[in-house]
Specification:
This protein is α+β, with helices and mostly antiparallel strands and about 90 residues long. It is built from one helix and seven strands. A seven-stranded antiparallel sheet has the order 2-1-5-6-7-4-3. A hairpin with a 2-residue loop joins strand 5 and strand 6. The mean pLDDT is about 90. This is PilZ domain-containing protein. It comes from Granulicella sibirica.
């Protein structure tokens, strides 16, 4: 993932994600309270969303998604489905 903050692009790794946001370490400090554009990647697929940094401690940020429409929420849900493995009993 990457977080665009002004003219800076800060690279990070997502370790926990939900419909409301995520947490994970970044290569550089991301100031708490910052707003920017977050891009998530999974293989060839990406998802961009406005985001707000809730906190940054010990190299790890907690980021809240700023969803502006029902369509963005649906797009996020579709992206999250790509990340969720299908249980063997459902195959």
């Amino acid at each position: 993932m990457d977080f665009i903050l002004g003219e800076a692009v800060i690279i990070g790794t997502c370790i926990n994600i939900s419909e409301s946001g995520l947490r994970g370490p970044f290569s550089s400090p991301v100031p708490a309270g910052a707003d920017g554009l977050l891009t998530l990647y999974h293989g060839e697929t990406s998802f961009q969303v406005d985001a707000h940094v809730e906190s940054f401690r010990s190299g790890e940020a907690r980021v809240r998604f700023v969803l502006k429409s029902d369509q963005e929420l649906e797009d996020l849900r579709a992206f999250l489905k790509l990340l969720t493995p299908v249980p063997l009993w459902r195959r």
